[in-house]
From TrEMBL:
InterPro entries: Alkaline_phosphatase_core_sf
Keyword Cell cycle appears in the UniProt entry: no
Species: Thermacetogenium phaeum (strain ATCC BAA-254 / DSM 26808 / PB)
Organism domain of life: Bacteria
Protein name (record): Alkaline-phosphatase-like protein
Keywords associated with the record: Membrane, Transmembrane, Transmembrane helix
Transmembrane segments: 392-411, 423-440, 446-468, 475-492, 512-534, 543-562, 568-584, 596-616, 659-679, 691-709, 715-733
Length: 740
């Protein structure tokens, strides 16, 4: 090659470099869009009203394969209001439980008309923001913001979209659930992709992507060819694309006009169309640099009527594997929340959410038969949720009947009161029986009830058979066995508590792990009265039993309070106060102001230590109260005020409506009456058994502290009194029997 040719080539290269540099400087969008093609992408497919069991149908091979090869989980559908599509979309968009509009929000693209007006002009008038022609806008953004502020909700819909825009990423939305001419536009999915200004970068939510056919039972259905063209175009430059497949929603809206046969025929047809679309999408997306989500954010009316309140979600693509999704929010493989979706998407795309988001990114726990496992979790959880109200109500009614019978016989026919002792033992044994029945994966109500009653009777009989002293030993055996099994289950993952009707309900979403308030109260009451009875039995050994009891109190405190185990901060504070009081009484230390201050100081130090340990953990490993300390650090007094209001509101609501209020009031009333009638029996019994007296007063302190420090404190207070009160009634009956 000659020098002239080399010079000519070099000149051309320099000229090309100069032109490219000038183009980038004068047109930044050119550089941005060129860079964006190398970015990761998330395709988020919304299939609301799809049922979990339908993904395993034989004629849906693409859906079935997607779930079997992906990370899957049930989806807690809690929002700050009703479980509907618009609130679910606002919650996903916020990363926090949020409110949306009463009806589905209005979202439009350029060229559409709303009541013969230009939606973009309406949006500009409402927000002061001028959208670009390619944007999609949410007209109801000001109302959405006002609704959350009015109800003092910290969520900010649009948080996900804002975080993606701040990271230089673009959003898009395609699809709707409209039934033109019959209802307002159904475009809730647009809220998922919007930013805090109510803007999505691009998309199509218009009626142009629908096919009209008067002979079709739906009247309108999705035009998949048009949708595919929009998606292919958007995937070139957009990083978060929400796709709403709305035909199942359209079907539900018109179901009352269809015969059952036509309804099921149309549902099967829609599912086959969904399946074909998923098959097409998986061929178009590069899973080495993208993630695809399929989710049903809202259960349909039929599922809600059956108390099946879970949605579900699956994800495939880069960084995923076959298994169950799990997140620090729930710590339950196979269950995540709406709030976890935004952090997971933002984390994958390299964006970050602000402190208003409470969800956490998920990971996949490998499980081979993941879909079957997810469906089994749903089946057992729904069964426990359906059974819980009836069984708890039955237990409470029996408890109140035993109390009424006790009062009647003690006052009018003392000789017959002895017949109530087996029932008192059964009441004490019931929480343990309800825990142990979780060993068996039963979802038949009659089999479950028979097994529960059998276990309850066996535990009561076994406690009598093993007892050396019939006055105290049956009670000691039942109380300490309950404490032991609860502690063991908690430190080994809480498998028994997950499916106990006396535990928390993950569909309700108040708690997903640790020790719930029902069993927290049981644990406090059984620990205090069980060890008080033990010391009464071992009163001839003054030192070592008291040392062991102190160590066991400390063990219960640690298991109850530490975030990796019980994770019940309010319960640990109540326990610290009640245990300190009880232990001082058991040691024979007279409680004066100094001892009371020491007790509160110890409780405060323990609580502060638990919070510090949790706060210092990595964000993805913090419990809910560790996250609260983080929000307190970020938002200051406002976060504390919000927490106090929430707890007071919850306690007020539960005190008025929960059946456990009757247990607490009935127990306290019975204790009050028996303290005075028959004359002297209570006073004599407590004087002769000072450890039992310490246990009873410790149980009362535990109940009061649990009421104060927990947002469902009335429940914990009621269950905390079950073992101490039933124990005292049992001993009174034995004393009465001996005196006759």
């Amino acid at each position: 090659m000659g020098k002239a040719e080399m010079f000519d080539r070099t000149l051309k290269e320099l000229l090309f470099f100069f032109i490219m540099t000038l183009t980038i400087v004068l047109n930044p969008d050119f550089a941005w869009s060129d860079q964006s093609d190398s970015q990761r992408r998330v395709i988020f497919v919304v299939c609301d009203y799809l049922l979990p069991e339908e993904i395993q149908l034989a004629d849906l091979p693409n859906l079935r394969e997607f779930f079997e090869k992906g990370g899957v989980a049930l989806l807690n559908t809690n929002t700050a209001g009703a479980r509907n599509r618009q609130n679910a979309a606002a919650t996903i968009s916020s990363g926090n439980t949020a409110l949306c509009t009463p009806a589905e929000p209005l979202a439009f693209g350029a060229g559409e008309s709303y009541r013969n007006e230009d939606p973009f002009l309406i949006f500009q008038a409402r927000t002061g923001i001028t959208p670009r022609p390619e944007n999609v806008v949410v007209l109801d953004l000001p109302y959405i913001q006002w609704a959350n502020i009015k109800d003092e909700i910290t969520a900010e819909p649009g948080t996900l979209g804002d975080s993606l825009h701040e990271a230089g990423l673009k959003t898009a939305v395609v699809g709707n659930a409209d039934v033109p001419g019959k209802s307002m536009p159904q475009r809730a999915a647009a809220v998922i992709a919007m930013d805090r200004r109510g803007i999505i970068d691009a998309g199509d939510v218009s009626e142009e992507i629908l096919l009209e056919d008067p002979r079709d039972p739906l009247g309108y259905r999705l035009d998949y060819d048009a949708v595919k063209k929009r998606i292919i175009s958007l995937m070139q430059h957009h990083h978060f694309i929400v796709i709403e497949l709305g035909d199942l929603v359209r079907l539900e809206q018109t179901s009352q006009y269809l015969s059952p046969a036509v309804y099921h025929q149309e549902r099967e047809k829609i599912l086959r169309e969904y399946d074909a679309f998923i098959g097409w999408l998986m061929k178009e997306v590069d899973l080495n640099s993208s993630q695809v989500y399929i989710t049903s954010t809202t259960p349909n009316a039929q599922a809600v009527s059956q108390k099946r309140l879970f949605g579900f979600i699956a994800v495939r693509g880069e960084g995923t594997a076959t298994g169950l999704l799990t997140t620090p929010t729930t710590r339950r493989p196979g269950i995540v929340t709406l709030c976890d979706i935004a952090p997971s998407i933002a984390s994958y795309l390299g964006a970050s959410l602000d402190s208003s988001s409470i969800g956490r990114p998920w990971r996949v726990e490998p499980v081979s038969d993941n879909t079957a496992e997810m469906l089994e979790i749903e089946k057992r959880t729904v069964f426990a949720s359906l059974l819980r109200p009836s069984l708890v109500r039955g237990y409470v009614v029996l408890h109140l009947l035993v109390l009424a019978g006790l009062l009647f016989f003690m006052l009018f026919d003392p000789r017959k009161v002895v017949h109530l002792t087996p029932f008192l033992l059964g009441l004490i044994a019931a929480p343990l029986a309800l825990l142990l029945v979780g060993f068996f994966p039963i979802t038949n109500i009659w089999l479950y009830l028979c097994l529960f009653l059998l276990l309850d009777v066996l535990l009561a009989v076994l406690s009598i058979c093993l007892a050396g002293n019939k006055d105290f030993d049956p009670l000691i055996i039942l109380c300490l066995a309950t404490v032991g099994v609860l502690l063991l289950d908690t430190v080994t993952g809480g498998e028994l508590q997950r499916y106990s009707v006396l535990s928390y309900d993950p569909m309700a979403g108040a708690r997903y792990y640790g020790i719930g308030n029902e069993y927290m109260g049981i644990l406090l009451g059984a620990t205090i009265i069980g060890h008080a009875l033990l010391l009464q039995r071992l009163r001839d050994y003054p030192l070592w039993p008291r040392v062991l009891v102190g160590l066991f109190f400390l063990l219960v405190l640690l298991v109850l309070g530490l975030p990796q185990w019980g994770s019940n901060f309010g319960g640990s504070l109540a326990a610290a106060i009640a245990f300190s009081y009880t232990y001082f009484r058991l040691l024979g230390i007279r409680l004066r102001l100094r001892e009371v201050c020491i007790g509160f100081l110890l409780a405060g130090l323990f609580g502060g230590g638990v919070l510090l340990v949790d706060f210092l953990r990595p964000p993805e490993g913090r419990s809910h109260f560790g996250q609260f300390i983080f929000s307190l650090h970020a938002d200051g007094a406002e976060a504390f005020r919000s927490m106090v209001i929430r707890k007071l509101s919850m306690n007020y609501k539960l005190i008025r409506y929960t059946i456990w209020t009757r247990v607490l009031l009935g127990t306290l009333l019975t204790l009050g009456i028996l303290f005075y009638r028959p004359v002297g029996i209570f006073r004599r019994l407590l004087t002769e058994n000072p450890a039992v007296a310490a246990g009873l007063s410790g149980g009362l302190i535990a109940a009061f502290a649990a009421l104060v420090f927990n947002d469902s404190g009335i429940v914990a207070a009621a269950t905390a009194m079950i073992c101490p009160a039933a124990t005292l009634f049992y001993i009174v009956i034995r004393e009465q029997e001996a005196s006759l």
